[in-house]
Q: What sequence folds into this?
């Protein structure tokens, strides 16, 4: 699918757009902004500390190679769409205003490839370390991002790009 750019919709919006903005401000995360890379790093650090505190068997095994491959895949899944955003001169900040509506791979099979990549990398670290407790990091990350960050981003996209974004949202899944 070709990359499409559309400037924010202005004159065609109604008061319902203002309602969306008002609802965003009242239903937000109580003023706390969650930055996905920082959340991923904090969860990785916390579960890594728990991994080393809790008694577990630590031997080199096949899961180290598989874990590193999954981490590499997650980083690739995350970096490529970030580069696409950079090339299109639009923000990667989940609290910023997007300058462009990007609809090109990987955004043709998932609406949130950067979050998918971070989740995958966190799961890869858990597998690499062979740690059950570290599996909490990707689960918590996905839960928080899905419930707090993505809904706000989607409301912003709907406000700026209207029906074009709603059609895209109906075609492409949030995660996979």
A:
């Amino acid at each position: 699918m070709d990359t499409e750019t559309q400037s924010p919709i202005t004159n065609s919006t109604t008061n319902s757009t203002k309602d969306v903005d008002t609802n965003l401000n009242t239903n937000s995360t109580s003023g706390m902004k969650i930055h996905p890379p920082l959340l991923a790093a904090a969860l990785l650090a916390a579960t890594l500390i728990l991994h080393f505190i809790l008694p577990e068997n630590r031997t080199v095994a096949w899961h180290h190679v598989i874990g590193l491959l999954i981490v590499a895949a997650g980083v690739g899944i995350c970096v490529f769409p970030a580069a696409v955003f950079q090339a299109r001169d639009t923000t990667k900040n989940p609290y910023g205003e997007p300058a462009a509506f990007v609809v090109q791979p990987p955004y043709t099979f998932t609406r949130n490839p950067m979050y998918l990549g971070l989740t995958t990398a966190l799961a890869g670290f858990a597998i690499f370390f062979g740690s059950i407790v570290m599996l909490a990091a990707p689960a918590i990350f996905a839960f928080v991002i899905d419930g707090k960050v993505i809904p706000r981003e989607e409301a912003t996209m709907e406000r700026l790009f209207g029906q074009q974004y709603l059609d895209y949202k109906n075609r492409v899944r949030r995660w996979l």
